[in-house]
Each structure stands twice: as C-alpha cells, then as structure tokens.
Design brief:
This protein is α+β, with helices and mostly antiparallel strands and 314 residues long. The protein contains seven helices and twelve strands. The chain is globular and about 60 Å long.
Length: 314
C-alpha cells in the first residue's frame, strides 16, 4: 500500500508569481527524480473536494525503469478518494540521437490575433481590456479568439481558441516542472465548456446555474452573460446548461522543456462528440514559436436544464 504524504501549503512568497504560490504544494522531484520529465498524466475527478480541510496524498511508485517510471497519486479527504492520477516520466535523452518528429501546425492567423489584442490592451484601460476579450483576475490571463467555423451546421468542425499565460514572471528557482504544472492548471480553462460554446448554449444565464453556484456574485454573472451575448445572437433561453463538470482529464506533454507558462500559449479546442449527458473535447497547445508542446483530452458531464413538467390544477 502507498504511504500517505500530508503537506501544508506554504505562506505566499511575494518574490514569486501568483501561479507559483497557488501550485507550490510539493515539488515533483519528490515524486520522480529530476533527470526524468513528465510526459503524460491521466486524471479522474471522483468526488467534489472541500478547500477548508487538508488533502492527504497517497503516492505509489508503480515502476522504476531505465527509460520510464510510473507513479499513481490519490488525493483523499475524510478517508474518501476525491481525485486520482497516473503519471508517466521519461529519462531525458533516452530515445537516442535519431528520432521521428512531426507536429500539428499552429493556426496561421493566431499570432496576428495575439499581436492585435496586445496592442489594443496596451492602449486600453482594464475595463476596456475586458471588452476586448482580455480576461482573468486570478493566477492566469486569457485572450479569447472568435470561434472558427461558428456558422457551420456541423458542430464537430467548430474550434474555440484562446491565448493563455500565467500572470507575472515565474522564478527560475522553481525549475522547469513548475511550467508543466502551470500548463496543466491552465489547460482546464474553458475546456469542457467548449461543448456548450460550439452548440451555442447558454452556460450562465439559466437559474439552475445560479442555484448550483450560490457563491457567484451578480456582477460576475452579468459579465459572463455579456461574454455569451458577444459570441452568438441565435441562442434561446430554453437551451441552457443545467450542470457541467469535468469527469476526467488527460495531458500529453510533447516538448516539456519548451513550455514557458509565463509566456503566451495558444490552446485550440474542438469537440468530436457529445451525447448521453456527456461531452468529449480535444485540445492542442502551442508555444508562441508555433511548437506543439502538449495535447489534452477531457470528458465531462454536460446536461441540459430540463423543463419541469407542468402540474395539473385538477
């Protein structure tokens, strides 16, 4: 049986970026030697967590090979598993000098969109920047691009795109693994929500959303609704999301050493399928140089708000 590791988050370090303070719980070198680099992680969200109580992490050293090592991690609260992941690490340089290489090209117009948005952002106030699509008050910020093929009747051909980066500068003392952790954190942004966007569904305006998220402030909800109004004029209040949560999340790190989470990364999402109350989304992530650094897959629960049956007055 794996042994538990109880860790407490350190106090915020003002010399580090916001996302470093958010993610700095335990270094990956305590899970795998630093000569190995994380290549993939397969995550399952089992139960809702409670931020007010500690999380106990159970790390199991499944295999230690010459080229690859495998670890599984369970996060538990009150004796129940709330999250589990399997991680694979590879020894750097173990493939030899001659390798097979190819990668999906970054969309040709993505850099131009980024340059335009940044130029407009520099000339705008914070409020105006939000109207331009520059969003984020937390550890990372995003610039959302228009939905590709948004008028197509074939939903699977639509693609959502956004530029994303960690706020501030990530310190060199945190090492390269912090950039992978930050990428994993940011990759969940607007991920399963892609299903709702390509179907032109209301995600935030419905009363079920407000009831299931009582901590959402009215002002924040109004901003979310305004954001939706700019994306499509064909939505109807009856087509709205009742519940939408992640079920599992897989990340493949293709070029771990070429990830800089504090520089702009382009994420492109598409949904090949949805049905039976679930949706599937594929995501590709490039760095600013156009290198495909990661690919992600996420399945989530996506259920429409159901009309309540009318009650007879008889």
């Amino acid at each position: 049986m794996p042994g538990p590791t109880l860790t407490r988050a350190p106090p915020p370090d003002p010399t580090k970026s916001v996302i470093e303070n958010v993610l700095e719980i335990t270094p990956l070198t305590s899970v795998a030697p630093d000569i190995f680099t994380n290549t993939s992680m397969h995550c399952y969200f089992v139960l809702a967590g409670d931020a007010s109580i500690p999380i106990v992490y159970y790390v199991e050293r499944v295999r230690d090979g010459r080229s690859f090592i495998t670890r599984t991690v369970q996060a538990r609260q009150k004796g129940k598993c709330i999250f589990t992941t399997t991680l694979s690490f590879v020894r750097e340089g173990s493939a030899g000098k001659a390798t097979i290489n190819h990668g999906w090209d970054m969309p040709a117009d993505a850099i131009a969109h980024l340059k335009t948005a940044l130029k407009e952002q520099d000339a705008a106030s914070d409020t105006d920047a939000e109207a331009l699509g520059v969003q984020g008050a937390g550890p990372f910020e995003t610039i959302r691009l228009p939905i590709e093929n948004n008028t197509s009747s074939v939903v699977a051909t639509k693609k959502t795109r956004q530029w994303v980066k960690a706020r501030g500068h990530i310190s060199s003392t945190s090492g390269p693994q912090i950039h992978l952790s930050a990428l994993a954190y940011m990759s969940d942004s607007y991920f399963i929500g892609t299903v709702a966007r390509v179907h032109n569904l209301w995600r935030f305006s419905s009363s079920p959303f407000k009831r299931s998220n009582p901590k959402i402030k009215d002002d924040d909800l109004a901003k979310m609704e305004d954001e939706e109004n700019t994306e499509a004029d064909t939505r109807t209040p009856r087509a709205s999301i009742g519940i939408m949560v992640s079920l599992d999340h897989t990340i493949y790190f293709h070029r771990p050493r070429e990830v800089r989470a504090d520089d702009w990364l382009l994420a492109e999402n598409e949904s090949p399928w949805s049905g039976d109350g679930r949706g599937l989304v594929f995501q590709r992530i490039w760095n600013r140089e156009g290198v495909l650094v990661a690919s992600c897959v996420q399945e989530g629960l996506v259920r429409l708000a159901q009309e309540e049956p009318s009650k007879s007055k008889l």
